[in-house]
Amino acid sequence: MMVFSIEEIKLSDNVIEQIKYINHLNLTEKQELLIDKLILNEELKEQYKKHGLCRECKQPNIGYYYTWKCRIFGRECL
Q1: Is 52 exposed, middle or buried (0-12, 13-18, 19+ CB in 10 A)?
Q2: pLDDT tens digits for 15-51?
Q3: C-alpha span between 54 and 62 (Å, rounded)
Q4: pTM
Q5: E strands within the chain?
């Protein structure tokens, strides 16, 4: 397992803007290709595909209701 700092695992605002309305549970082939192109970090990509984006901080969830950032600060985002 790789260890990252918060800054290393964060998606850019540009990437978030392009994927925020995509349903991660029902990706089309075109959306899948876009995700693969935009999210280069394999761990982030897998977390996005499994759990989507946090509604609060807009980063890929690592579980159903929280992100790395939110977990560190002790909150569960929905």
Answers
A1: middle
A2: 999 999 999 999 999 999 999 999 999 988 998 998 8
A3: 9
A4: 0.70
A5: none
Cross-strand pairs, 53: 60
Quote the tokens at residue 27.
Answer: 């990706």
Beta carbons of 8 and 69 less than 8 angstroms apart: no
Q: In degrees rounded to 5, what are phi and psi of residue 41?
A: -75, 120
Tell the residue number behind the tokens 């761990």, with chain if given: 43
Distance set, CA 40 to CA 15, 34, 36, 56, 71 (Å): 11, 11, 7, 22, 23
Q: Which residues contact 38 (CB under 8 A, 6 or more apart)?
A: 15, 18, 19
The token pair at 24 is 């991660």
